[in-house]
Amino acid sequence: xxxxxxxxxxxxxxxxxTASTDGIGFAIARRIASEGAVVVISxxxxxxxxxxxxxLESEGLNVKGVQCHVGNKEERMDLLxxxxxxxxxxxxxxxxxxAVSPYAGPTVDTPEPxxxxxxxxxxxxxxxxxxxxxxx
Length: 136
Hints:
By secondary structure, the chain is α/β, with parallel strands linked by helices.
């Protein structure tokens, strides 16, 4: 689906979608790009990023991919910098699709459980607020 088939509700907007090389994240990225957005997709695995970018570009969609584990502060910041430096210095929409796998076992059985979960769910939002506030 190209933007010609969509409603162009996101025309000329920059959208970042985490964990977006397959599943729901990929479907979100595809749909938003089909409606005119420049979409920055990400995954922990570079091969997955490259494959997803290739697929979306073959559909005529405007995408950029970045390897990023949202639990890693430097990788989160690199993802946001890629979006702001390559496009219009502003992120219009940030979709945090990354999650903790329910198959990893109970939280109490994992090393540093609270820190890992907080980094995953809150770290990305904190980074995005930092970028937003620095632009004011």
